[in-house]
Request: fold
Amino acid sequence: MAPPPNSAAERNTDMAGEIVVGIGGDGSGWQAARVAARLANLMHTTLVLVFGYEAVAMGPRGGPLEEQVAAIGEEVTTEVRDELLATYPTLAIEVALVQSRPVDALIEVAAAREAEVIAVGHGGSGPLKAALLGSITYEIVHRAPLPVLVVPNDPDDE
Amino acid sequence: MTETLTQESGNASKGLKAGALGLVATTVIAVASTAPGYSLAAGIGGINEAVGVKAPFVMLFAFIPMGCIAAAFFYMNKADADCGTTFTWATRAFGPKTGWIGSWGLIIADLLIMPNLAGVSGQYVLLLFGADKAAENAVYVTLLGCAFILAMCWICWKGIELSARTQVALLSTELLVLAIFAVVAIYRAFGDGVTRTIDGVTYQSVTPSLSWLTPSGLSLSAIAAGLVVAVFAYWGWDTAVSVNEECEDSNRTPGIAAVLSVFILLAIYILTSFGTQAFLGPQFVIDNQGDAVYAVGKQALGGTFNKLLIIAILTSAAASCQTTILPATRSMLSMGSHKAGPGIMARIDPRTLTPKWSTWAFGIFSCLWFVALALVSGSGMITADYNIYWSSIAAVGLAIAFYYGITGFACVWYYRQYLLKSAKSFFLVGVLPLVGAVILTFVFVKTLIDSWKEDYGYGLTAGIGTVFFVGTVLLALGIPLMLICSKKYPGFFSLKPDAQNVIPDPRGTDGPAPELGS
Reply:
């Protein structure tokens, strides 16, 4: 595993790094985005919304499928961004649509931007489902080279 | 304040995915997509029926056209990595009509196999719980089978995927169980062998012989009849290895995984086809076509271990079901998206990021088709007296041969200007796809001609061979449908094949071809 892009000791103590948050089309991570927005606002740093997408690995993908999924990603991130801007009008928000598995997308963006912390949603999958299908939260906590903030999803976000 | 950036995932940042796990996982996905356990359970009876003890030869030989067509998939994917595969590629090479009808072949192949998948699953679920009597009841099997189809559609709609670790665990169990089954069966067939009298018929082991790997004594018709079932056994492998890899990937994992998966598949198919037919002779397999592997397993292993065999076949059927639904619905999505068919097929569920309408439409048609076959066949569906239900595997083979053939020819024709560039291009982009396409066309035409006759081993429907009837009627249905679509969607149907100057070098570093129709 790559070494942490920026250890706490090396960091410039006057300035906070960015906060990277992963959001999905199903409402997952939206609550995490709200918490992260509040923190980013207090920390005077930028919030990066990451939408990682990859069509199912088995079977063909690409072409119209990828295009449409990307369009949905834009829609979802715009919706979340607008909601956050309504609460924190001065917050700097950036959006990254990444064509990769959500976990890889988050780690990539966080590493590239030397972020302070990754925020992810959690909820839905019980231990059995997580063991069989894998859990984004579980994987990110184990693989991320930087601190991870886990926020329970709000069931009202669909 | 806002910036949208779209990034491609880089190699360096893949972290734990790269390296050893990557190789194992890629190989596993290729083998799991092919579903050896299920393919064997469903196909071996038909192969034995066609070629007797030469099943191992047919299994070996069938890989050649499929491996060749994988090259066509690989190079066409470089020009256009569109989820429509054959649809998009044949349109680029030959024009919209060929693309449309090729895609129809793909969807029909997928649709035709669903009843069989569902039937095998329904039956093996019942066998798993010891309900051997219920497993012979067409009503129970049909109901369970439909539930299975709908459950698999639900999984595909939800976009649920087993984690790589779970897949590795399931597949290793499947392969291990199949290997033990085959080795025990082969071992017990040597020497005096085994004699069993079942339902008044006496079966006797056949001593395994290396001559089973040669075509000696087989007629061309028999080879074609065997191949049409055996191509089905490798179906899925090509897509898994050729379509999902990044073309510029410096990482050599995909190539090694493809080669590894071939050896695993060949080994397991040859071993298991030896085992199933040796233990009580090919006639026993033919007489138990409906549940051949279970029937042999019950005699050879018995008890608990046979349950493992059933579980292996069931997980394999589930994987196969997924790799059947996905390409079909992706092709429908691509057709809808390129305006070659109803736009609703292209609609994506924003939450699950999957083509919801196509998935459920495909699932519902599959159930209807399954129920229709069950009604036509009645109780004969299970007892396997070579009726419409079992002959559907051969009809699937016909449809596969049809659209794979088109894909192979499309590759050769599309890249014609590059074929003489180097010996390697000539061989990889020209010879391989052409050989695959020619063999598959031969299988297609020969099977059509033979299955027209009434003495073809699968019985009669409406006075002509059942395979011919099922395969041809459904494929031919595509022609009127295409004509209707060409009236309704003139935009797509006025497209021309790609101009020579926009076609990228398949073995060069040119980018993909420009958008379809631009």
